[in-house]
Amino acid sequence: MKKLILLCTTLFYLSSHAQNALNIPPSLTGGSFTLTLDEGTTQFYSGVTTNTMGANGSLLGPTLIMDKGSNVSITVDNQLADTTTIHWHGLHVSPENDGGPHTVILPNTTWYPSFTVLDKAGTYWYHPHLHMKTNLHVSKGIAGMILVRDTEEAGLNLPMTYGVDEFPLVLQTKGFDATGQIEVETNLDTSVMVNGTVDAYVDFPAQVVRLRVLNGSSQRVMEIGFSDNRNFSLIGTDGGLLAAPVTLNRYTIAPGQRADILLDLTSDLGNNIQLMSYGSEIPSGYYGAAQPGMGPGATSSLVNYTSNPLNGGDYQLLDITVVAQTGSPVTSIPSTLATFTPLTEGSEQATRSLTFTASGAMNNLNGPFLINGLSMDLNVINYTIPLDNIEIWSLTNQTPIAHPFHIHDVQFFILDIGGTPPPPELQGYNDVVLVPAGMTTVRFIAQFNDHENDTLPYMYHCHMLPHEDMGMMGQFIVTSNPANINENEVSEEFLVYPNPSNNGSFQINSAVLANGYSVYTSEGKLIKDVSFNDPTSSFELIIQNEGVYILEMRSIDSVLRKMIVVQF
Predict the structure, then answer these.
(1) How far is the C-alpha of 204 from the C-alpha of 263, rounded, in Å?
(2) pLDDT value, residue 43
C-alpha cells in the first residue's frame, strides 16, 4: 500500500510540472459509423507505459456527430479479450439499440445497432455497460462523445466548428497502481486528465468558444470554474439547449453529466487562464469533498480517501492560452436559445418512489447500496411502464453520500431538490441528477414514449460506477401490455443455478413438469428448442458461448421466462 500511495503522489506531482497538448478526439459524421473496441497502451507519464482500452484507438473514442431525424447505423466490432457492451448515454433509442447489460458483444463479434435520431441538439456520450464490469472498461479508457445537431441550433449564432471554436472536454480522474497500470478499485484517483491528457494545455481563439464538457469520472463530483473567477454562460445540460443562457462562475457536474458552455474570450488575447475544479467548495456528503459522507461515523470509512490531495482541494483541469481569432469568429452570446415546454406536475399518470439505502450500517460509505432494498438482478423487472406514460419519480437518499442517478430511454425535468424548485441551470433536459445525502428527496417528471419491448428492459442506476457495479441498479420495461409483466418477482416454480454460469452449464429445477424449453439471444434469436418425450421437473442446460440469454420453459398450462448469463 505504501508503494501505491507513493506512486500516486509522484504521478500527481509530475502532472503539475509537465504540460501536454490537449488531445482533441477525431470526429465522425454522417449516418454510418464504425467503432472498433481494442486494447492498446498509452503513456500518460513519460517512461510509464499503461495498458488501456479504446474505440478506434488505444484510449477513448471518436466524437460521433449526428443530425436529428437522420437514420444512423453503427458497427461495433469487439476486438477486446473480454465481453462488453456500448451504451448510447442520453439518446432516446429502443432497448434493443440502447446497449445496456443485456445486449452483450462477445469477443471477436460485432453488434449492429441502428436507429433514427429523435433527440434535440445536445451533448451525449457512449461507454460500456456490462454488468459488474462497467467501471473496469470505462476506467481503462472506452468512452466517447456524441453531438446531435438540429435546425433550431443551426438558427442560432453558436460556435459549431469542431476543434476550432467547439471543443469536447472529457474530464476524468484515475488511479494508478505500483506498476503504472490503471487501478479500478481505489480512492487514490489522483491523476487529473482531460480527453485522456494529463496536465493538458490548449490554445483557444479570442472569441466565443464552446466547451462540450463531460464528467467521465468513475466517482468524482467536480465544481468547475475558471482561475480568475470569470463568468461563463451555460447554454445546455444533458439532453439539449436551455431556453436561455445562464450566467455562472461555478457549476457542479457529477459523473455522467454534461454541460454545454460558452466562454467569451473576445477581450482576452494573450491572456492565460485555467479551467479548475474547486474541490474546497464542494460540501460534505459528495465524493470529491474533504468529507465524502455526512452524518455520524461517516468521516473516515473510505480507505485512502483522506490521502488523496484532490479531495477537498482545488486543482487545475486545463491550462488555456488565448490566441488570435479564427477567420469567422462568433463574438456574441445569444439571449435566447431553445423552445420547449417542460412537463409539469399534474400531468402524470403514475408516481414511483425509490429509496437509496446502504447495505449494513446506515453510515456505510463503501456499499453495496440498494434501491428500494434490492440489488440488481438481471432476471427481475423492477417496473413495468405503460407506453406513453408521464411519470413522476421520487428519489430519497438515506445514505451518507450523494448519488448521481441516471435513467435510460428518457430525458426528464427536475421538479424539486429537497422540496425546492431547481435553479435555472437545472431547468432543462436531464438524464442524470445528483441526489444529495442526508434524507434528501429529488423529484423529476418524464414521458416514456416512442419505444417499447416486452422482453428487453432499460436500466436506471447510480452513475458512480463502483456503486453501479455492486448492484445499485434496476430495470424497467416499457410496454403496451403491462399486465403481462410481473414486477419484482423471481418465480419459485422455476429455478436456474448457478446464474451467472462460468462454464455454460445450468441446472434447471421446476415445481411443475416441463414439456420442453427454448433459448433465445438477448436480440431474440432462437438458438435452442428442446421438447421432452416425458415431462420432467429437472434438466441440465448447456450453452457454448458467453452472453445473456432468455430461457423459456414450457409446461402444460404455462410458459415461464428467465434471463440467464454465461460468463467464462
Answers:
(1) 10
(2) 97
Judging by DSSP bridges, how do beta strands 390-397 and 350-358 pair with one another? parallel
The answer, as to whether pTM is greater than 0.85, is yes
Using alpha carbons, select from 461, 476, 486, 488 the residue that is nearest to residue 387.
Answer: 476
Range with the lowest mean pLDDT among 228-232, 288-292, 543-547? 543-547
What cell does 531 get?
A: 421438447
- Architecture in CATH of 350-483: Sandwich (2.60)
Q: Which is it for the CA torsion 242, 246, 249, 252, positive or negative?
A: negative
Per residue in 198-218, pLDDT (tens digit) is 999 999 999 999 999 999 999
Query: What is the C-alpha separation between 237 and 246, in angstroms, rounded?
Result: 11
Q: What is the pLDDT of residue 497?
A: 77
- Other Cβ atoms closer than 10 A to 402: 30
CA atoms within 13 A on the CB side of 521: 14
Dihedral, CA of residue 103, residue 105, residue 106 and residue 109, to nearest 10: 130
What Cα–Cα distance (Å) separates residue 414 from each residue in 222, 225, 418, 463? 20, 23, 11, 17
**Which residues is 123 bridged to in the sheet?**
147
Q: How far is CA 554 from the centre of its chain?
A: 37
CA distance linking residue 131 with residue 567, whole number of Å: 11
Is pLDDT above 80 for 6?
no
The model's confidence at residue 3, banded by pLDDT at 50, 70 and 90, is: very low
Query: Per DSSP, what are the bridge partners of residue 127?
Result: 87
Q: What is the mean pLDDT of residues 290-311?
A: 82
DSSP H helices, 18-132, are 95-98
Say if domain 494-566 classifies as CATH 2.60.40.3080: yes
CA–CA gap between residue 448 and residue 391 (Å, rounded): 8
Domain extent listing, the chain: 350-483, 494-566
